[in-house]
Amino acid sequence: MTFQNPFGQPLLTFPELDKSPLSIRAKALVFIDPRSQQLRQALEHLAPQALPVLIRGETGTGKELLARQIHRASDRAGLFVSVNCAAISPTYADAELFGYSAGTLGGTASSRAGWFGSANGGTLYLDEIADLPLEIQGKLLAALENREVTRVGAQQPQAVDVRLVAATSIDLARVVRAGRFNERLYQYLLEGALELPPLRERRGDILPLAEYFVGIYCVRLQRPLPLISEAAQRLLEAHAWPGNTRELENVIHFALLVNDGDEILPEDLDLPDTAR
Ligand SMILES: Nc1ncnc2c1ncn2[C@@H]1O[C@H](COP(=O)(O)OP(=O)(O)OP(=O)(O)O)[C@@H](O)[C@H]1O
Ligand SMILES: [Mg+2]
């Protein structure tokens, strides 16, 4: 399904999520600025190919949303499995990622597929990949290249077909040079590199995104749709958005909580007053 935004351009939407209108996550991709449209073209070109993807972008720029869109546009039948590498326990990283067989790990009765196995036939999204323990990085590469994994405690490897989409908010090349990231895994990921520019470098997205979030949160809050006053629009456009789209989303959410009138005013925006 596509729907028109107030700027007249169709948005890409995620039909499988249309059933849950209150879910803010991954409902649509607002890509209006010319830089975003270029990115959308690169995405459409890359998505159907079997290549791994590395998304580079600051915090809150929409990396996970982009990864979900890549999965959707790839027509891979399996799941989209999202894992934050910073949250993986260093001690059990092996088992968490590649699974374990029954009887291992202190006598657990059942086996587990692990994140990698759960993404079989689908897409594994590894957020902040630089945080993946170094020992696991080589194993991840081997699993991707050989298309098989051996669960912790298992004798035989199992065949798996996983497309990796990784994200990083830091410069991985520097981490490689510092000896803390596997160079071959880095080269493997570079085959499909996508750069997600910060919001301040695609200012044409700011107002469309603001309108989009107003629409989403009004449904969520069950309130009528207000306009964004011109002064508030100027303020939104002038802000540097260090927290990117996530920060914009929070600012709009806040504005709708503090003002239930028919116009969002500059004082409703929790922003430094630069444009008045
Ligand atoms: N182009 C977009 N169109 C619509 N919503 C977006 C867009 N980009 C980001 N968002 C929304 O902004 C929020 C942040 O996006 P997301 O979680 O994908 O960012 P991220 O780069 O993964 O952030 P982090 O670095 O914190 O992990 C989400 O609610 C997402 O749905
Ligand atoms: Mg993220």
General description of the model:
- 35% of the residues are buried.
- With 276 residues, the protein is α/β, with parallel strands linked by helices.
- It folds into 2 domains: 162 residues, 3-Layer(aba) Sandwich (Rossmann fold); 67 residues, Helicase, Ruva Protein, domain 3 (Orthogonal Bundle).
- The chain is elongated and about 65 Å long.
- Strands 4-5-8-3-9 form a 5-stranded parallel β-sheet. It has a two-stranded antiparallel sheet with strand order 1-2. The chain has a two-stranded antiparallel sheet with strand order 6-7.
- The longest helix has 16 residues.
- It is built from 11 helices and 11 strands.
- Magnesium ion binds next to helix 2.
Give the secondary structure arrangement, pairings included.
Elements: E1 12-13, E2 28-29, H1 34-46, E3 53-56, H2 63-74, E4 80-84, H3 93-98, H4 104-107, H5 114-118, E5 123-127, H6 134-146, E6 148-149, E7 158-159, E8 163-168, H7 172-177, H8 183-190, E9 193-195, H9 206-221, E10 227-228, H10 230-238, H11 244-258, E11 263-264
Parallel strand pairs: 3-8, 3-9, 4-5, 5-8, 10-11
Antiparallel strand pairs: 1-2, 6-7
The chain binds adenosine-5'-triphosphate and magnesium ion.
Adenosine-5'-triphosphate is lined by residues 24-26, 28-31, 57, 59-65, 127, 169, 209, 212, 245-246, 249.
Chain-averaged pLDDT: 88
The CATH class of the largest domain is identified as: Alpha Beta
> Using DSSP, what is the number of strands?
11
Radius of gyration: 21 Å
Write down the domain tally: 2
Major β-sheet annotation: 5 strands, parallel
Distance between the termini: 39 Å
Number of helices, where a helix is a run of at least 4 consecutive DSSP H or I residues: 11
Give a list of the ligands.
adenosine-5'-triphosphate, magnesium ion
CATH architecture of the largest domain: 3-Layer(aba) Sandwich
Strand content: 5-15%
Low-confidence stretches are 1-26
Principal-axes geometry comes out as elongated
Helical amount: 25-40%
CATH topology of the largest domain: Rossmann fold
Strand order within the widest beta sheet? 4-5-8-3-9
Class computed from helices, strands and strand pairing: alpha/beta
